[in-house]
Amino acid sequence: MLEHTLAAPVEAWVKSFRHHLNLPVAIVLPSGQSLALGDFEQPRLAIRVRSWKSLPLLLSPSVDHLATAYVEGELDLDGTLDDIIELGYAFALAENPVPGTSFQPGHVRHTRELDREAIRFHYNVSNRFYAQWLDRDMVYSCAYFAHGNETLEEAQHAKIRHILTKIRLQPGQTLLDIGCGWGALVRLAAREFGARCVGITLSEAQYEHAVERVRQEGLQRQVEIRLQDYRDVDGRFDRLTSVGMFEHVGLSNLVDYFGTLNRLLADGGLALNHGITTTSAASDGTAGGGGDFIEKYVFPHGELPHISLVLRTLQEGGLEPIDVESLRRHYAVTLAAWASRFEAAREAIRQEVDEKTWRIWRLYLAGCAYAFRTDKVSIFQVLCQKAGQDAATLAWSRDYMYRGR
Fold it and tell me: Which ranges carry the DUF7884 domain (predicted)?
């Protein structure tokens, strides 16, 4: 009876949808009936509904609804990964093309405990899981493709060198890396630049791996890894880096975050913040509910500011931005490489994690690649120093950042 009750309105909705959008997509109902959303001989994407109860998610499409139904096993998506993402976005955004999310930015009180639990949720899946699709050094942030034909390993190494060159790191200087991940940046800074480094993380899994890699490379005298919140660090450092971390800070905490960087930065020092931003000038989320999906399944309590808000709050925190570089194209390529590796290692990954986790990350990586490629999100490196310093301390040009490339 439920089947007959729902089939008719679904057919009517599909007819209306075809009229104004015309996509190479088919919806396959639990009964086996296939309804085409466009005038094409063969659909590139088949949305196979496994239960009549999940149909309301399709009748009010959004990125969040479609991705949630897939992750929870209420429907299957048949097609190449590229088609799943591209056509899934087109389908999901058909009736909700503008930015917006039900998650209200700035309404989360980012306590130490809340932030620690969010980091654990994301990074403590397992080191073996991440090792299946990251590069050898386990760098989990946007790579830097100077020419576009580099391998992922080469581009990640180049990204770290690009950051350390930007901050003009010198032998013997002290460096604090906030959100050090598995320790690749501090190890390279010590090994190739002769710096004395402290790396901090809130993830026990990352901490254990980073400590072991430091020991294996004999860098214990130059590198210290701490399980510590950035707000609890004391002292002054010649150089600061924060790569892929400030997305966890919270919009209402950005001034305090940059104020903490200001407190930790020595006079005459340089700091670099590398982080994802929204392309919504109002800093109110991403199109079609993608942020809602990430909030639920991937990054709890993450909030993305627009670059304009980053620069304003950075200045209010006592820092002066002296160089801003967009790496959006680089992150699209990085994420596409991760998604490709993830697909190639699918059998090994599915032995490491459950089906739901595999589905979450499969959509997340490929979906983020598409989002960066199509300007739904962006990413910037912002080089800064303490506000009010003499202009004579600034480099004459950006040439020094690219020497030897």
Answer: 13-90
CA triplet 130, 134, 138: central angle to 5 degrees?
A: 80
Dist CA 308 CA 314 (whole Å): 10
Whole-angstrom distance, CA of residue 383 vs CA of residue 303:
21
Write the CATH number for 299: 3.40.50.150
Q: Could you tell me if residue 246 is inside a domain?
A: yes
The residues carrying an active-site annotation are 368
**Look-up: residue for tokens 């969040």?**
64
Range of the domain at 152: 112-401
- Residue 103 domain-assigned? no
For residue range 167-208, list pLDDT tens digits in order.
999 999 999 999 999 999 999 999 999 999 999 999 999 999
CA distance 126 to 130: 7
The structure's pTM equals 0.88
In whole angstroms, give the CA distance from residue 18 to residue 24.
10
Q: Would residue 107 count as lying in a domain?
A: no
